[in-house]
Amino acid sequence: MTFASLSALVFALGAALQAVNAVTLPQKRATCAGGQVTANAACCVLFPILEDLQQNLFDGGECGEEVHESLRLTFHDAIGFSPTKGGGGADGSVLTFSDPEVNFPANLGIDEIVEAQKPFLARHNISAGDLVQFAGALGVSNCPGAPRIPFFLGRPPAKAASPIGLVPEPFDTVTDILDRMGDAGFAAVEVVWLLSSHTIAAADHVDESIPGTPFDSTPSIFDSQFFIETQLRGTSFPGSGGNHGEVESPLAGEIRLQSDHLLARDSRTSCEWQSMVDNMPKIQNRFAATMLKMSLLGQNQADLIDCSDVIPTPPALVGKAHLPAGKVQSDVEQACATTPFPAIAADPGPVTAVPPVPPS
């Protein structure tokens, strides 16, 4: 690694940590009409929305399908930002201008969560950009092991739809993905940190015949299993599978995106990917940092109100990092050239298929 690239890596890490550490929860001092206490009276508007979302979108506080999709929507809305191609970033254009945005090829499947969130937008005093990011941060708080995602209030209405072609797709090359994310201001390590989201994710449309197929064996727990299981040996499906950005997972009932498979093995990202294995403090810290950065794309943080203390504290992590039952260390496809894969024990079993994420 050259001195210049090392300096860039250190700068990216420092910037991300400064971003998340800058969001300190101030002392609560405003009492809302419902009795809740928060740091800023302007944040009181969020508590009725929180209760409505938890009961009527997230099934009473579950880390399920609607949480997964709401988290996905935060990215698909925010990444519609480019200094050269335009786009308003995290402005809610995916709700306000859902036609045409839900019809972009990269946005396949987001129409369902877009339509599910629109009634909440209609009945509450909140902008579309704030609703998308608030629902994502709130939903993640339902998942054991997750960090508390910072949230800022006050995004103005979206002015136009995002340009087409700004959302990376699972069959894009690593270079294309890193270039697109770099254009939006993310370093390669930050792409890895942001992909921690796939620990609580599933695919409905990568293969239409198997909806709700998770990306790891614990899709309702925010843990490091995604980073472990993507490094198990897997091969591309023959024929149409690869055309949909799909790679065969060695675990029955689990799906792996081609982009995740390649990022876990590319020299630009493989060591950072491996560093997330069994390192929950790092996963939580880096994910919160990149989520904050993403949620502010196209926005001026100084114009927004810190309402992070409205987001509930997530439940503690359940379980510990492990190889799936029936797997051994030699099943890991070592990709990082400088550091061996961490020694972790295998789940004692039995070997079972990963169940699909049930629809809401």
Task: Please describe what this structure looks like.
- The chain has 360 residues and is mainly α.
- It folds into 2 domains: 37-167 and 288-310, Orthogonal Bundle (Peroxidase, domain 1), CATH 1.10.520; 174-276 and 319-331, Peroxidase, domain 2, CATH 1.10.420.10.
- 37% of the residues lie in helices and 5% in strands.
- It has 14 helices and 8 strands.
- The protein has helices at 3-22, 46-56, 65-78, 93-96, 98-101, 111-123, 128-140, 174-183, 188-194, 225-229, 240-243, 258-263, 270-275, 280-295; strands spanning 30-31, 37-38, 152-153, 202-203, 213-214, 246-248, 255-257, 305-306.
- A two-stranded antiparallel sheet has the order 1-2. The protein has a two-stranded antiparallel ribbon with strand order 3-8.
- A hairpin with a 6-residue loop joins strand 6 and strand 7.
- Helix 3 (65-78) packs across helix 7 (128-140) and helix 9 crosses helix 14 (280-295).
- It is globular.
- The model is unreliable at 1-10 and 237-243 (pLDDT under 50).
